[in-house]
Amino acid sequence: MYANGCQYAHKAIRNKNISNSLMATLYSFVLYSSLLISCFLQKSYGFEGGRKAITEDHFHTIQIKSLLPASICSPSTIATKGSSKRQSTLKVLHRHGPCSQQSQDKPTTTPTLSEVLSHDQSRVEYIQARLVPNSNANKIKDANSNKNKLKDKKANIPAQSGRSLGSGNYIVSVGLGTPTKTLSLIFDTGSDLTWTQCQPCARSCYKQQDPIFSPSSSTSYSNVSCSSSQCSQLSSATGNNPSCSIAACVYGIQYGDQSFSVGFFSKDKLTLTPTDVFPNFLFGCGQNNQGLFGNTAGLIGLGRDPLSIVSQTAQKYGKYFSYCLPSTSSSTGHLTLGKSGVSTTTKFTPFDSSQGKSFYFIDIVSISVGGQLLSINQSVFKTSGTIIDSGTVITRLPPTAYSTMRAVFKQLMQKYPNAPAYSILDTCYDLSNYKNVAISIPKISFTFSGNVKVDLDGSGILVAVSTTQVCLAFAGNGDASDVAIFGNTQQKTLEVVYDVAGGKLGFNPGGCK
Ligand SMILES: *[C@@H]1O[C@H](CO)[C@@H](O)[C@H](O)[C@H]1NC(C)=O
Ligand SMILES: *[C@@H]1O[C@H](CO)[C@@H](O)[C@H](O)[C@H]1NC(C)=O
């Protein structure tokens, strides 16, 4: 069916009279592009070997309470490594946490944990489908059947209203236009185009917290023309060919699970900090927007493509940025552009740049659980490849790697009673008897190529699904060839440094609280 869909979409684009009305263009662009997206696929492999590592101190002591969302914002005031030296830095908030203005609309807009995990699965399936070469038709079919499986599972789970974890999931505030308007955007290393909803919302805008950006009120705004080279760059940045409305360049981008934005490709002044201003920043001015963006104004794309904010600000920041995702939704982290404040003790693993132009590929060499090096054949990670993604919540591992991890973890957690699986999380514990006492959980560390060993924070190992139940915060992929994803739960409190120009990714513990 999807093979036919591809033919249909290409033919439709060729035959389409693109000087239709704006509405028709925007509407049909979504239809065609949703078919076309499955027609642009890519994948390749390439890896290096590495060495083994042994941990010294093998358990974290944590309180289940520390894993539950707090209701009061307590922004990081404690100086963390390099914080006084950071210049171009933005505060990072959990989208649904108490530090975010978005959360004032609670509880109606705060997704439940099961919703978060179900959205996470959609994102993962979408990323994996984009990276698989020929078998996209099967892939999408599988994705749909998985979704149905998830739905069935979800039906058995009591919804927990007001429960927040954040999907997609960390936001920063930036300024756009003249005079400057403040916009809260999701930051995403898994995509490239930055966009915001724009007036007059010709087709549709979802509800957002900030006033919707009005291009006609900005004296520095301009449309990108259809014939410009910038317009044609959209193909690689979004995976969809641009369209035209009269002379204006029209973009379309979708993120899986029916989330998308379509609108005019535009230029305006981007203000990151009072001294960091970019006059002709290229972004999407969305006239038709739908999906899982919560109440944010849109998205900031930190991928590797020439249209990403990383590339567009390269002259000033040298394609270098870092962030730290806070351990709970009640604290704050940072997103810093440029090198300032990055610790000299940062350990770097090379990016595997042989793989596509957008995602950040890295190589997992080994994983330890409770000091035990897991016995996983190297070829397992080579077969899948791995990306690091700020927008995926739960780390996905190749099936055999995950089952090995789970077996060792279970053995070391034997003394805690088991609890039923929860959504995509299959290794859960009933801590009713441990509500107010500390529990001891095995440390987990990842070694990436270049012998870069990263110990996960205690907050990056378990997810609390209630005040008495926790689950291992990892999941296995359905297929050995699906790409592995190092997700944002596992990145918590780590300073993660992207030296894109230098082709390497750095990790540093204790980047934020
Ligand atoms: C941008 O293009 C659209 C569609 O052609 C048009 O309605 C709008 O007025 C243009 N804006 C500017 C500032 O040129
Ligand atoms: C690892 O897997 C590869 C490919 O499946 C196989 O050829 C090799 O013998 C395996 N190595 C070990 C040590 O099991």
Automatic annotation (TrEMBL):
Q: Where is the Peptidase A1 domain?
A: 170-508
**KW Ligase (keyword) present:** no
Q: Which UniProt keywords apply?
A: Aspartyl protease, Disulfide bond, Hydrolase, Membrane, Protease, Signal, Transmembrane, Transmembrane helix
Instruction: Tell me one GO molecular function of this protein.
Output: aspartic-type endopeptidase activity
Superkingdom of origin: Eukaryota
The UniProt transmembrane annotation reads 22-41
Cited Pfam families:
TAXi_C, TAXi_N
* Matching InterPro entries: Aspartic_peptidase_A1, Aspartic_peptidase_AS, CND41-like, PEPTIDASE_A1, Peptidase_aspartic_dom_sf, TAXi_C, TAXi_N
Q: Could you name the active-site residues?
A: 188, 389
Polar residues bias locations = 99-113
The annotated region (Disordered) lies at: 94-113
Q: Name one GO biological process term.
A: proteolysis
Record has Nuclease as a keyword: no
Which family is this protein grouped under?
Belongs to the peptidase A1 family.
Protein name as it appears in the record: Peptidase A1 domain-containing protein
The organism is Buddleja alternifolia
Lineage of the organism? Eukaryota, Viridiplantae, Streptophyta, Embryophyta, Tracheophyta
